[in-house]
Amino acid sequence: MKKPLVVVVGPPAAGKTRVSKRLAKAFGVEAVDTDALVVREWGPIPDIFENHGEPFFREKERLAVLQALSTTGVVALGGGAITDPHTRADLEAHRVALITISPEAVEPRLDNAKRPLLRGGLEAWKSLVASRAELYRSVATREFDASHQSVDTLAEEILQWVREDAGL
Predict the structure, then answer these.
(1) For residue 27, what is the domain's CATH number?
(2) What Å distances lie between residue 128 and 5, 119, 160, CA to CA?
(3) Quick one: angle between helices 45-52 and 54-69, nearest 10?
(4) pTM for this predicted structure
């Protein structure tokens, strides 16, 4: 059965996509981002939310998760993918890196135009993260804090863990 080296999860704007790309490059494998898969087929996420609603987006996201989890590279899940119980169950069979980040560190990264659930800014982000924190932890094999380190340093930390854990 094909399986990703690592699946990266975490709240919006934690750096999942950037870290995943660096990990994939270091391992010489493909980076698969579920949000990018949805966007490729359905267009920008804010447009999907506006024209079809969040349930439609979550349905398409679930299909993207299934596609991504059948690859052998590095997978970045959208911030809300773990809200689906089937996705959480699927992740039990995978090595999952949870990237966390403090509100102070994430604030400059919040582009609310690209993130429909964060139109309320930092307070909306805090509320969203609080509502999902237990779900993130429930799927995580290991947690990594992005609050006070560069993307490169964070990627190196995860890279070392994956190498050790996978015996590479």
Answers:
(1) 3.40.50.300
(2) 28, 11, 30
(3) 130
(4) 0.93
